[in-house]
Amino acid sequence: MIKPKSAILPPWIVLDPQLKQWLTEDIGRGDRTTDGLLRGESLWGTAHWSAKAPGIMAGLAVAARVFQLLSDRLEVTPTVKDGDRCDRGQVILQLEGPLDALLMGERVALNLAMRLSGVATSTREYVDAIADLPTQLVDTRKTTPGLRLLEKYAVQVGGAKNHRMGLDDAVLIKDNHILAAGGIEKAIALIRETMPYPLTIEVETETIEQVKTAVNAGADIIMLDNMSVAMMQEAIEMIRQYNSRIKIEASGNITLQTIRQVAEIGVDYISTSATITRSPWLDISMNLGPGNLGINDPSKIRMI
């Protein structure tokens, strides 16, 4: 079973503006329910999160940060780590702090953790299917607007690697670029004149003829897009004979049922959007501790 070794969460200086925006979207002019219950009283509460389905946890630090942006006195103690597989009913973190922060932050924090854990769980299924092979699974730019950094982090947690984060990471000449330039050779020549060192050039190909052209034009990475297994085998043999340093990526219509067959033909990478675009959320619930029952009973909730 694969566990992540290099999943790196972006720094808070990058994530905090988005987290604050999502909190503002949810809270709006104020939490009518919580404000109506607490009536300005500063009460102390506890809660725990539990998994309602088995899966791979991801985004627990992000969830903790959501609560802490609402109150720096709120303490979050995970009982598992990102990348751990959890069972249904398992407690995954404990919370203690101002009750208003617990109630106001609940939905945003849960939404993020459930989304990211779903991506990590789906990714782990694909990674496990080829775990004994040298082929590396990578993601794509098909991400939810606003969530790219976090969804790609969840892919890492699931055991895969990130493809380019955005358009400035690397050159990827796709079908429309080829049409716009008037051919693969022209596209590569034009881009090489202006691209900074040490970016690489990847070319998306759909036919053997395009593969030949990309090889001869000096592509660093060649993507075999929506090809049959037989066609990919022919392309791989030709590329390896010409230059063994050229990296080969397979893409298009990759599923759990087909990924192993594609990996076995010897590609370096398999890219798929399915781990993000087709992943269901992993259901997680938050429950207040028994000491939080009865807001009007001071013996059950401590005053801050």
TrEMBL record:
Residues 40-117 form the Quinolinate phosphoribosyl transferase N-terminal domain. Gene3D superfamilies: Aldolase class I, Quinolinate phosphoribosyl transferase, N-terminal domain. Residues 119-286 form the Quinolinate phosphoribosyl transferase C-terminal domain. GO terms for cellular component: cytoplasm. It catalyses: nicotinate beta-D-ribonucleotide + CO2 + diphosphate = quinolinate + 5-phospho-alpha-D-ribose 1-diphosphate + 2 H(+). GO terms for biological process: NAD+ biosynthetic process; quinolinate catabolic process. Its EC number is 2.4.2.19. Pathway: Cofactor biosynthesis; NAD(+) biosynthesis; nicotinate D-ribonucleotide from quinolinate: step 1/1. It comes from the Bacteria. Belongs to the NadC/ModD family. Hexamer formed by 3 homodimers. This is Probable nicotinate-nucleotide pyrophosphorylase [carboxylating].
